[in-house]
């Protein structure tokens, strides 16, 4: 794995940890559950646990978008491990994802053009 991939991997893991903290604070805000115990779970489990416990629409929406982002991060991490030559390429059109975009969101799966086309169709 080259330096670029190492760097991206670090960023992805860091972001995942950040998201885990966001989920913890959501839990803490909404419940009096002892989060210390929960944080030994990995981030994915933490989000699932939070979704089970917090059945409030407002929070569920937030958790769902966090969960989707974590899935994208895991996906990007797997890609870095298994086929790093494909990392940074749009999964739809195969073009190189804009550097700026990849820098801000290393978990991006699509280039800006594809992403905006997909958003429009939704
Ligand atoms: Zn594309």
From TrEMBL:
Q: Where would I find the Zinc finger DksA/TraR C4-type domain in this sequence?
A: 87-115
Source taxon at top rank:
Bacteria
Show the Pfam families listed in the entry. zf-dskA_traR
Q: Which UniProt keywords apply?
A: Metal-binding, Zinc, Zinc-finger
Checking SUPFAM superfamilies in the record gives:
DnaK suppressor protein DksA, alpha-hairpin domain, Glucocorticoid receptor-like (DNA-binding domain)
Zinc finger (dksA C4-type) boundaries: 90-114
Q: Which GO terms describe its molecular function?
A: zinc ion binding
Q: What is this protein called?
A: C4-type zinc finger protein, DksA/TraR family
Annotated source species: Acetomicrobium hydrogeniformans ATCC BAA-1850
